[in-house]
Amino acid sequence: MERVRGVLKAHLERAYAPYSGFPVVALVEAEGESFLGVNVENASFPLSQCAERNAVAAMVLAGKRRIDRVHIYSPKGPIPPCGGCRQVLLEFGSPETEVVLHGPEGYVVRTLGELLPLGFRL
What we know:
Layout (H helix, E strand, L loop, with lengths): L1 H10 L13 E6 L2 E6 L12 H11 L5 E7 L9 H10 L5 E6 L2 E6 H4 L7
Parallel strand pairs: 3-4
Antiparallel strand pairs: 1-2, 1-3, 4-5
């Protein structure tokens, strides 16, 4: 976990969060590969993109469709993904998929099922 946290922290400065001051980095492990994403805010706040969804987009672009594990880092502490991101992660994962919430002092592990107990699935 320390290696992954180091990777996440190394990419934190690439997040674009001038409005909220809340940078986030996400790493999605999928089918033996890792995909990074950072949050990208916009003055029209609904147009902002979360780090988790950007990491999933990178994964999909690479032709992967199955999330094995998710890591999220913020210097504000271990923070869970927003509701929309939880649903997107569930689309490519399962209720058992681990989500590792990293902060400066350590990490917490939850499953998508714990974070989104009644997620929509086809």
